[in-house]
Amino acid sequence: MLRGAGRRYGERAALRDVSLELEAGQTLVVFGPNGAGKTTLLRMLATLLRPHAGKVRVLGSELPDDGYAVRGRIGFLGHDALLYRELSGRENLRFHARLHGIAGEGAGARIERLLVAAGMDRRGDDRVADLSAGMRQRLAVCRCVLHEPELLLLDEPDSNLDAEGREAARELIGPGSGHSRVVVTHDPERFLPEADQVLRLGIGEVAAVS
Amino acid sequence: MTPSRVAFAAILAKDLRSELRTLQSLPAMALFAVTTFIIFRFGLDRTSLSGSLASGVLWATLLFAAVLGINRLFVAEREEGGFDAIRLAPIDRSVLFAAKAAALIIYLAALELVAVPIFALFFLDSVAALGPLVSVLLLADLGLAVVGTLISSMAVNSRARDLLVPLVLLPLVVPLMIAASGATEPLLVVGGPGYHRFGTWLMVLGLYDLIFALVGWAVFDFLLED
After folding, report:
1. Nearest Cα residue in chain B from A7
2. SS3 string of chain A?
3. pLDDT tens for residues B50-78?
4. What are the domain boundaries of chain A?
5. What CATH superfamily is the domain A2-84+140-209?
6. Is A74 at the interface with chain B, CB within 8 A?
7. How big is the A-B interface in CB pairs under 8 Å?
8. In B, which residues are within 8 Å of A50 by CB distance?
9. Contact between A82 and B80 using a beta-carbon 8 Å cutoff
10. What is the mean pLDDT of residues B31-55?
């Protein structure tokens, strides 16, 4: 839930007066031109940026004060894959599993299941540095849902993915995955059929929700 | 919340695995130290050193070699999204500080395993001082690690990182280096090792470590905020 949420970078307002409410299991599609604050909104919801105005409540917790209660319940897929280049895909996923308190055989089984679902099981031991951008994105999708989050924050989730990768991603983070989702995109036509709500951001404009 | 020991072990293991694969820090640190000893060996034109001069050569070399590792401590976190990954996880963020400081202590210990025997070979008549020197090295490493981790985390977002780290770090570690040199000097006197004021300097080192460990633990969470 956002009420008049805003964020500045110095004197420049990156996001102004955004208000919306998303029910559990719903999908919000956010679109707008470059620089309209889409990524800023997503990072704010992920607790990575503090709001400078208004109220932001995520999964029942007020941000930024209760950020600790929300982390671990959010799956974040941003521009960066958040994967270490010198580690393999499996090692990266094991690292993230441990950070999220998932250990032992349960973690291993979950990682294997995700790698298979993403079509990355045969390349899972390759260094991330040796993988194509599309393969890194597939691993990033695995990382995003590894800890079984309730809310997915997805920034251009299809970027770099081929048709097979998009299908795999759809299975893991698509509308049928059972998550609440906020999807930031430059391609609203692609995601509008999945949307329960749409947020249009314009540069320097107050956001419009429909 | 993920237990801190689990997150600590995960971050430390990740750092050590990455360093073993890339060898981005340790070889440079060791090469710098060995080269500096060679320059001192021929520059001073002495086959043996003792007392304050020996102590100064050892600590100046170890300090500047350590700066190379400190500079790179958070580069992967900055360039590969590790900061965001850790900020998104349900962990106490101070765990990152502890894990990075532990990784740096391991790098410094590995550096000293190479550098100190070479120092002894080049400059010392006896290796009797090396035993008690270990306690000085451990306490000085701890101090360098906590201050270095703090400064490195602040400087990593700056384009002038390579300049900023020594600029801020070196003045802060002056008390540490004075205490480490003070504790090392009696160990390396001719006919030594001696122990004049050795215990006092060790206590100063311990106090410095404690203060900066507490400061680092207290402020690190705020350093990771946007």
Report:
1. B226
2. CEEEEEEEECCEEEEEEEEECCCCCCEEEEECCCCCCHHHHHHHHCCCCCCCEEEEEECCEEECCCHHHHCCCEEEECCCCCCCCCCEHHHHHHHHHHHCCCCHHHHHHHHHHHHHHCCCCCCCCCEHHHCCHHHHHHHHHHHHHCCCCCEEEEECCCCCCCHHHHHHHHHHHCHHHCCEEEEEECCHHHHHHHCCEEEECCCCCCCEEC
3. 999 999 999 999 999 999 999 999 999 99
4. 2-84+140-209
5. P-loop containing nucleotide triphosphate hydrolases (3.40.50.300)
6. yes
7. 81
8. 225-226
9. yes
10. 94
